[in-house]
Every structure is written in C-alpha cells, then in structure tokens.
Amino acid sequence: MSVKVPKDRTIDNTIALFKDGYEFVPKRVQSHHLDVYETRLLGEKVALISGEEGAKLFYDTDRMNRNGALPSRVLKTLFGEDAIQTMDGDAHTHRKLLFMSLMTPEALENLRELTTTYWERFTGKWQGMKKVVLYDEVRELLCRTACEWAGVPLTEKEVDKRTRDLSNMIDGFSAIGPKHIESRKARKRSEKWIEDLIKKIREGKLELKEGTALYEMAVHRDLDGQLLDTRMAAIELLNVIRPLIAISKFLTFGAVAFEDYPETKPQVAEDDDYLFHFAQEVRRYYPFVPFLGARVDHDFTWQQYPFKEGQLVIIDIYGTNHDPKLWEKPDEFQPERFQDWKGGLFDLIPQGGGDYYKGHRCPGEWPTLEVLQASFRFMSKHLHYTVPKQDYSYNLRKMPALPKSGFIMKNVSMK
Ligand code: HEM
C-alpha cells in the first residue's frame, strides 16, 4: 500500500526554522505516521527524519555522506573548514582514530581530577564575590581544565580572551550580524593561537607529554603519511577544547535541575549510580544540539520516500531525545528512567548516535560524562550557595538555548 509522505506546502521554511528553533523538526515529523517529512530550506528540498529509525538511517554510512552537508557559516565559526565533521570513508575513520586514541582510562581519570581541582579553586574565588553567574564562571573553569588536559599552555593574561573566543565560536554560528562576524574573528584568532603552538612543537621549542591532544595533533600523519598542515592540526585541536567548554551549558542546566527538582540533589550527592543517571537525563532533557545534516549518497527509497542523490537530510536530535515512542513521559525530568535503559545506540543521541569508529558519533561523550559527573558531585556535596530570585527559564526558539540569567548564585562557600 502506498502512503503519502507528508510535506510542507510553503515555498520555503527557513524563517519557520528560526522561529520554531528546537521544535521545528519534531513539530513536523512527530505529527505524522512516518519518520520522514519533506520541507524546503534555503531553496533546497530537504528530508527531515526523526526517532530511532531515522537515526539508524542517518548513521548508515553507505547511504549518507557528510561532505557538503554543513553550511559555510557553521564551518567558519563552530567547526572549522575541512575538519573531521566534513570527512567520509577511510579518511574519516583514520582521523577518528586520532580522537579516539585520546580517550584512554588514564586520560579520563586525569580529566575527572582536573575538573574537581578547578571546582575547588573556583569555589575559593567565589567565596569573596557578591554574586556568581555560574555560566560565565564555568566557561572559564572549563577553559582552564580543557587547556591543561589537552597540553595547551595558557597564561593568566590570556585566560579571559581565550575563554571568550572559544565560547563565541560556539554561540555565533546561528547568529546574524555583528555576533556572527565576531564569531568568525574568534575562530581566526583561535586557529592562529594553536597553529603557533603546533609549529613550536614541530620545531622542538615546546615539549609535551605523548598522549596529550596538542602533542598528538602535532605528530599525527594522514593516510598519505604526511603531517597535518599546521592549520588543520590547529582546527582539530580546537575540536577538543572548544566542546569541552561547551559542557558549561549542560552544567548550567544541571544547576537549574537541582532547583526545579530539589529531590534530585541529595541523591546525586549520595549515590554514584543516581549521579550517572542524572548526568544522562541532563543530556537528554535539556536542549543543546537541535539537529544535524548529511547528504544522500545515492538514490534509494525509505519509508515510501524517494531520497535523491545529493539531497540534504536533517536528523532531529532534540526531538529524538524527546520522542514519546522511545521515552515514557519525555517532557518530565526523571533520572530514574536510566536505571533500566538498555544503552541503545540510536535513542539517546544528544552527541550523535551509532558507532564511534564507523560514523560521526561524538568521541567526546566519555569526557563529557566525566566532567558532568565530577561537577555535579562537587556541586551537590561540597558547594553551598543560595539562589536569589531570577529568571532562569530558557527559550526553545533560541538556538543554542541557555537559562536566561545564566544561573545566579549568592553566599557561595565550601560545605
Ligand atoms: C557539551 C558536550 C558535547 C556535545 C553536546 C557534543 C555534541 C556533538 C555532536 C552532536 C556531534 C556530531 C555527531 C554527528 O555528526 O553525527 C559531535 C561530534 C564531535 N564531537 Fe562532540 N559534543 C560534546 C563534547 C565533546 C567533547 C568534550 C569533545 C572532545 C573532547 C568532542 C569532540 C567532538 C568531535 C571531534 C566530533 C566530530 C566527530 C566526527 O565527525 O566523527 N565533543 N559532538
């Protein structure tokens, strides 16, 4: 029996995408019987897909490619040009191994310890402050943690500037006007900063331990046996430290969760399993990455829909994490749901899905969970603070989303 694939009847929906934000794709796909919906964005016919089945298709590397899927405004700010996110096939697998090689148990333990050390130091500083805006502070905390973990020397004088540039790269990709221009400049400055360090390592002027991200990027050879050019090595190093700073958004949302669901905080402090489930629920429940794009490798039909070679396909990240077919009461914050979770590769996808090695799933999922758990443990066990009246609501129409006040704390001290 042939079923009609639903589609938008309007000429172009780019404006609706910016108006609906995180809800643009789920609003369309989840209102129908299939996991696919056709729309038009920037003049292109685009297939929107969602849910577990949609994610399986999106991560099928025989049918989907990444080259040409990302708009230049995203490459010139967030990711960098020609980096791992745009690669396919053997070249991608080889580059991915470089990232995966950084995630050893020792390196992750080191990251956990560094994160806790910086929370202790920052708490000392916050004790003397009238008010602390958590989001602003944890960006710096994570910038210091990320640089130390990656082997990137960071002087006191440059901490502010580097933190600002790395965050602007994250926040400016979807902006228009001056904010976007500033984001491009921030990327240029950051690439230059790291490129100079890569050159110093190669010239023997900077010594680093093997296994640190900076060292490994400097000595990595591509499939043709050549060292990465210095700019590419810098871009890939930024693909490690920039997302570590982005964890500040999940941390700020976690602080909001402690207030909105106060029963969670003592359980996070006392029970390590619950702590892990809390971190997972923060990643599932709160909005971060809205969707991702790929291009169709060759013509095929899926759920009655004729995918055409080269067509843009968008997978719904936020909507899949809130899909009622996968999650009971998806719009409730319930860390307990992870007690019986089977660990599916295509249901919890805040950092992508599928296999780490074969596809584009985020290699930073373990570091993210380490940083989140170390931070939530510290906040619940050792950090005393009061929460003054403020608006920490967030808007699903604004991408990337963030609690409005940035989460203000007062009377901060060690417990
Ligand atoms: C706030 C935490 C993070 C979020 C929300 C996040 C999200 C994502 C997402 C959605 C993808 C794309 C998956 C795809 O294209 O299919 C991705 C890829 C990637 N992430 Fe993360 N990430 C985070 C943290 C990290 C960390 C801590 C690192 C490094 C230490 C990292 C490094 C990367 C890299 C290198 C890729 C590209 C992988 C590839 O193309 O094969 N991320 N991340």
Describe the protein in words:
The chain has 415 residues and is an alpha+beta fold. The chain has a single domain (14-414), classed as Orthogonal Bundle (Cytochrome p450), CATH 1.10.630.10. The protein is built from 15 helices and ten strands. It has a five-stranded mixed β-sheet. A three-stranded antiparallel β-sheet has the order 4-10-9. Strands 6-7 form a two-stranded antiparallel ribbon. The site of protoporphyrin IX containing FE (HEM) has 24 residues, from helix 5, helix 11 and helix 15.
Question: Can you lay out the helices and strands and say which pair or pack?
Answer:
Elements: H1 14-20, H2 24-29, E1 36-41, E2 44-49, H3 51-58, E3 64-65, H4 72-79, H5 89-100, H6 105-126, E4 132-133, H7 134-150, H8 159-171, H9 178-202, H10 213-219, H11 230-260, H12 264-270, H13 272-285, E5 291-296, E6 300-302, E7 305-307, E8 312-316, H14 317-321, H15 365-381, E9 383-386, E10 408-414
Parallel strand pairs: 2-8
Antiparallel strand pairs: 1-2, 3-5, 4-10, 5-8, 6-7, 9-10
Helix pairs in contact: 4-9, 6-7, 6-15, 7-8, 7-11, 8-9, 8-11, 9-10, 9-11, 10-11, 11-13, 11-15, 12-13, 12-15, 13-15
Bound molecules: protoporphyrin IX containing FE.
Residues 84-85, 96, 99, 239-240, 243-244, 246-247, 250, 288-289, 292, 350-352, 360-364, 367-368 line the site of protoporphyrin IX containing FE (HEM).
